């Protein structure tokens, strides 16, 4: 009984900050503390969201943005992870020499080289994927290299003294040892990828959440703009939470202590749970349905059947 | 001589990259219309610098990035230390809210803040500060929370008080995490400032690049892009340098 009570109390405390904020959002415009023209109350934003959802546009925007982020991230992982392992595993001194170049390249801003990107990738989906991948590749690569480099030397020496081969060492020692760091890199990369995607969609696209916000702002549809922003935030939180959970579970071998409050690190052995299949299923689903929507959007345009078609974006994706 | 050799060895990859770039556009592997040789870009950059306009844009951009970053540091580090575990209830009440705020993309905010503040300096600095706050805040909080168990156990078994543990153990132990946040933020600040300047500004490096793109001056585009990259890298190295000067107790673990 007391346990249940404590749990309820915890939930109330945890949600109180958020609820207070949402309540303030509703009250402030209603009572005239801020101009409701600029900040519509939460209820009208939610109404705008519902209208968008009923029209079927919101689903398209969300799935298109998700598809772009996911595919871009997958490409970044496919490039960075093997590269990191090969560099650090077999050519550590070369990796050290390449590091300054990688650092320099990681600071290249894809938007500053937009014409060059257009030259290589056109102005379609490929350009956006290239921007996302280029931005996300570096955190994953750096964190992979750092992760491998900072695996406890004692464990590596032990493994060597057991005469394991390099491949086994990679698979059974370095990969689990570096996994938490790699996943941190993944999280940082995803964050950056979402930033970039929204910017890319604002600067030139015909669908996606970034486009929705930008287009609404241009047409002065303020509730719709907030609705788009809210969706981006919720989406970001979901992605972040999923990766955080994986990150926490990847620390299963680490010691923790309770000090100054509880550590909420639950250790789940996620190799024999439903975790991995569900995650793979979700990824596959987003790739499949997102791909369909992206095709549809790019082949016929999203808004050609109603009066919203005159959005002021000169760049139309072919 | 030895120092020169070490410097050469450190930067050999960059040199090779630049040489390859120069060579490939010289022999016509790239179309010089789209990818001018490195030497031409360098010469253009020099001309732009001498004429003085670019210097002004660089200073403006740096000023904005630094201002935003400083505001973030002043707000985020104390808040992060507090959230790292002092007020447990406040922490759990604020955490979901902060998580939401952290996901509030700078470019959505751009449109929102423009509504309230217009397109001015304050808007850009606010956006940069907003972006920078969250990595610092979260890294500080998690640094405080994930202090090495052994250190804490031994400190507690010595019977040290909470404040002493905080000052002597938690703060130094969390410092690397705080610096991780600072580095992340410094990187974000400059990277995203450029995009913010491209979206709404009439000065700064981002504006310069956009202006060059609109006029299709490919050499200027490359100059701008190169400068942005070099400046971003310099900021990163500067923060790293400060980190090394401040954190002297951390022994670097390296597997060779």
Q: Care to describe what's here?
A:
The complex is a heterodimer of chains A (318) and B (256). Chain A is mainly alpha-helical and 318 residues long. Chain A is 74% helix and 0% strand. Chain A has helices at 2-30, 42-55, 57-90, 92-106, 114-121, 125-149, 153-161, 166-203, 209-218, 222-249, 275-300. In chain A, helix 3 runs antiparallel to helix 4 and helix 9 (209-218) runs antiparallel to helix 10 (222-249). Chain B is flat and about 70 Å long. Chain B has eleven helices and no strands. Chain B has one domain (46-246): MetI-like fold (Orthogonal Bundle), CATH 1.10.3720.10. The longest helix of chain B is centred in the C-terminal third of the chain and has 38 residues, at 162-199. Chain B has helices spanning 2-10, 12-26, 38-51, 53-83, 88-103, 106-117, 121-145, 149-157, 162-199, 205-214, 218-246. With 256 residues, chain B is mainly α. At the A-B interface, helix 1, helix 4, helix 5, helix 8 and helix 9 of A face helix 2, helix 5, helix 6, helix 8 and helix 9 of B.
Topology at a glance:
The complex is a heterodimer of chains A (318) and B (256).
Chain A: H1 2-30, H2 42-55, H3 57-90, H4 92-106, H5 114-121, H6 125-149, H7 153-161, H8 166-203, H9 209-218, H10 222-249, H11 275-300
Helix pairs in contact in A: 2-10, 3-4, 3-6, 3-8, 3-9, 3-11, 5-6, 6-8, 8-9, 8-10, 9-10
Chain B: H1 2-10, H2 12-26, H3 38-51, H4 53-83, H5 88-103, H6 106-117, H7 121-145, H8 149-157, H9 162-199, H10 205-214, H11 218-246
Helix pairs in contact in B: 3-11, 4-7, 4-9, 4-10, 6-7, 7-9, 9-10, 9-11, 10-11
């Amino acid at each position: 009984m007391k346990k249940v009570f404590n749990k309820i109390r915890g939930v109330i405390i945890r949600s109180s900050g958020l609820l207070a904020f949402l309540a303030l959002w509703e009250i402030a415009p209603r009572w005239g503390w801020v101009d409701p023209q600029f900040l519509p109350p939460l209820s009208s934003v939610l109404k705008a969201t519902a209208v968008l959802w009923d029209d079927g546009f919101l689903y398209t925007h969300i799935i298109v943005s998700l598809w772009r982020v996911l595919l871009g991230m997958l490409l970044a992982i496919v490039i960075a992870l093997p590269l990191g392992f090969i560099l650090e595993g077999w050519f550590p001194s070369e990796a050290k020499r390449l590091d300054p170049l990688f650092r320099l390249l990681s600071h290249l801003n894809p938007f500053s080289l937009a014409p060059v990107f257009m030259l290589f990738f056109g102005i379609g989906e490929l350009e956006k994927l290239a921007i996302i991948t280029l931005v996300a590749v570096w955190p994953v690569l750096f964190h992979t290299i750092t992760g491998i480099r900072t695996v406890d030397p004692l464990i590596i020496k032990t493994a060597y003294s057991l005469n394991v081969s390099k491949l086994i060492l990679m698979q059974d020692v370095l990969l689990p040892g570096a996994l938490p760091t790699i996943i941190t890199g993944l999280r940082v990369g995803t964050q950056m990828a979402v930033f970039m995607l929204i910017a890319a969609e604002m600067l030139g696209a015909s669908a996606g959440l970034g486009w929705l916000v930008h287009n609404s702002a241009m047409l002065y549809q303020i509730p719709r703009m907030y609705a788009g922003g809210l969706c981006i935030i919720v989406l970001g939180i979901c992605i972040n939470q999923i990766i955080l959970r994986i990150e926490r579970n990847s620390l299963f071998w680490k010691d923790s202590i309770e000090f100054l409050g509880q550590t909420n690190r639950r250790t789940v052995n996620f190799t024999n749970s439903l975790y991995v299949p569900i995650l793979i299923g979700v990824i596959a689903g987003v790739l499949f349905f997102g791909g369909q929507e992206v095709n549809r959007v790019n082949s016929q345009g999203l808004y050609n059947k109603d009066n919203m078609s005159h959005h002021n974006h000169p760049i139309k994706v072919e | 001589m030895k120092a020169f050799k070490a410097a050469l060895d450190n930067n050999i990859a960059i040199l090779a990259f630049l040489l390859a770039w120069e060579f490939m556009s010289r022999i016509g592997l790239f179309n010089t219309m789209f990818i001018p040789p490195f030497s031409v870009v360098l010469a253009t950059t020099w001309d732009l610098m001498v004429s003085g306009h670019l210097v002004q844009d660089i200073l403006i951009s740096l000023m904005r990035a630094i201002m935003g970053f400083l505001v973030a540091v002043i707000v985020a580090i104390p808040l992060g230390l507090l959230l790292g575990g002092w007020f447990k209830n406040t922490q759990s009440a604020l955490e979901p809210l902060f998580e939401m705020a952290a996901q509030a993309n700078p470019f959505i905010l751009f449109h929102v803040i423009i509504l309230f503040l217009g397109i001015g300096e304050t808007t850009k600095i606010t956006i940069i500060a907003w972006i920078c706050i969250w990595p610092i805040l979260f890294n500080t909080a998690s640094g405080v929370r994930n202090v090495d168990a052994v250190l804490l156990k031994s400190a507690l078994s010595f019977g040290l008080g909470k404040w002493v543990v905080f000052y002597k153990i938690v703060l130094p132990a969390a410092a690397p995490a705080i610096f991780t946040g600072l580095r992340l933020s410094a990187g974000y600040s400059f990277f995203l400032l450029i995009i913010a300047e491209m979206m709404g500004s009439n000065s700064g490096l981002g504006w310069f690049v956009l202006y060059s793109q609109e006029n299709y001056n490919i050499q200027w585009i490359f100059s701008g892009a190169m400068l942005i990259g070099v400046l971003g890298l310099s900021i990163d190295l500067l923060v790293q340098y400060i980190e090394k000067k401040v954190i002297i107790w951390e022994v670097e673990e390296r597997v060779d």
